[in-house]
Write a structure and sequence with these properties.
Length: 508
């Protein structure tokens, strides 16, 4: 077998393989026997017809097609070995340029390559912000609102009040003869929220509730608002709307003292101090998680900018498909589908994929490749003890969420234990990678050492066994019951081009 290769600009390689003529003839004979087993040929039992009879019955084109399939299945891995190619996934048979001798041309996607630059020069202080007393007070006030009395007041509305009104909305550019009134006098009840509150879904637009600050009951006031083309409410999208509001009543929330009864209703707290401590811990966890996510992403992006990353287009396409599938799965849990979401965003599938999915998939893929290389270079691994502890954490969370019998029915014991093990391993590895980055960028911070396994190969077996034991005790289901489709073997028979360019069939 003679082979040659030529690398392409998109991290693939074109391989031209010339096989021995006798080899193709051998596969043609094998192909004929296979066809004979599945084809009724008069006068012969299945699989017993001689080559010439099969040839006359089905034609040489059918035999060659089957022979090529057989040849690719067995010889393609040898082609890769001979050229020392590490494929990312199955290649593609682009062309058969000759049958005499057999010359095949393949396009093979290559494994990603990362040349890591700058990991020894990372620098970023690790300094999460502490929880402030003001943040604790705000959360405590939010909790108290659930038990507040609503009392009418004779004054101008202010932040924290509840206002009652009727609202009319008129299209200022309605065509003559069209009904300009979009919203007739409709009763509304609004809470005037604090200035930095974020509510993108607020109707009719974000910040509407704060329009009533300083206004008094019994008064009517009017204002205009121009909506963007992608406004959530289609009736308002791209229009200048004139609003007329009749403010009917203002009520304030009278926050209660935290009595023993209220503390019990909130969560069986013994005192306000204990509640405050819990609030502080919750805010601290939330702030630290947000800080850690940004800290981690910023450091990885530093490495992305400096390093050299090469990957084939098929790998990016797979990342895009994974993101789209995850989005559809998430939407299904919200009672929506992709089509409805696109309609609300006033866009189409192709535009959304090009402008939203692709950029995010590219960033996610490149960050993943950077972290894989960083993990390999610094030999970050997880020992059995750490993995087993994380498995217990995963299952404990599932039990707390009350996800029980359905998982066992949907997944079965084997798939369930595999899913739990994978989730636990990914969590443990993520924490170890974060600690590694932190140690490289901010070495003065006391680090938690990422454990290394005594035997790396044993982690999956031990973890799987642990998960099976815990499964029997907890019978809980994982967060997602869907399993990613298994990727085809990298050296599997290459796919044929949609329109394969083949020479004229040889004649016997």
């Amino acid at each position: 077998m003679k082979t040659s290769k030529e690398y392409t600009d998109d991290h693939q390689v074109k391989i031209t393989a010339e096989f021995e003529q006798d080899l193709l003839e051998q596969y043609k004979r094998r192909a004929a026997r296979k066809i004979a087993k599945n084809t009724r040929i008069p006068g012969f039992r299945p699989g017993k017809a001689p080559y010439n009879m099969v040839l006359n019955h089905v034609g040489e084109a059918s035999i060659i097609q089957e022979a090529v399939d057989l040849l690719l299945e067995e010889e393609y891995p040898k082609v890769l070995d001979q050229e020392e190619i590490k494929p990312w996934g199955p290649g593609n048979l682009e062309k058969i340029s000759s049958y005499e001798p057999p010359i095949f041309e393949f396009i093979v996607p290559l494994e990603a390559e990362v040349t890591l630059i700058g990991d020894d020069k990372l620098e970023k202080e690790y300094a999460p912000e502490p929880v402030t007393e003001e943040e604790i007070e705000k959360e405590l006030e939010r909790i108290k609102r659930n038990f507040a009395d609503v009392v009418p007041v004779e004054r101008a509305a202010k932040e924290g009040d509840v206002v009652f009104l009727t609202l009319q909305a008129v299209d200022t550019a309605a065509a003559e003869g069209d009904d300009a009134i979009i919203v007739k006098d409709t009763p509304q009840q609004l809470l005037i929220e604090e200035e930095n509150a974020s509510r993108p879904s607020e109707w009719p637009f974000e910040g509407f509730n704060r329009k009533f600050i300083g206004k008094k009951a019994g008064k009517k006031f009017e204002f205009d608002h121009t909506f963007p083309e992608d406004a959530r409410d289609e009736d308002f999208a791209g229009k200048k709307i004139h609003f007329v509001a009749n403010l009917q009543e203002i009520k304030e929330l009278q926050l209660p003292e935290l009595t023993e009864e209220i503390l019990q209703q909130i969560g069986s707290y013994e005192s306000e101090e204990v509640l405050r401590e819990d609030i502080k811990k919750a805010i601290e966890n939330q702030k630290n998680n947000a800080y850690d996510d940004k800290y981690f992403t910023d450091l990885v992006d530093q490495l992305r900018e400096q390093s050299t990353i090469k990957y084939c287009p098929q790998q990016l396409e797979e990342a895009e498909e994974d993101m789209l599938h995850a989005l559809e799965h998430q939407l299904s849990h919200q009672g929506m589908d992709l089509e409805l979401m696109l309609k609300l965003r006033k866009t189409d599938r192709e535009t959304y994929i090009e402008e939203d999915i692709k950029p995010h998939a590219k960033s996610r893929l490149e960050r993943s490749l950077i972290m894989n290389e960083l993990t390999r270079k610094h030999e970050v691994q997880i020992d059995e003890k750490t993995l087993e502890a994380e498995i217990q954490n995963v299952i404990r969370e599932m039990v707390q969420r009350g996800q029980l019998e359905n998982a066992q029915k949907d997944l079965g014991s084997k798939r369930f234990s595999e899913n739990v093990t994978m989730e636990a391993y990914q969590r443990a590895m993520g924490m170890a990678q974060f600690e590694l980055l932190k140690s490289l960028a901010s070495p003065d911070v006391i680090q938690v050492e990422a454990p290394k396994p005594k035997k790396a190969a044993s982690k999956a077996k031990s973890a799987k066994k642990e998960a099976e034991v815990e499964t029997e005790e907890a019978k809980a289901e994982p967060e997602s019951s869907e399993e990613k489709a298994e990727k085809p073997a990298k050296t599997a028979k290459p796919k044929k081009a949609a329109k394969e360019e083949a020479p004229e069939e040889p004649k016997e």
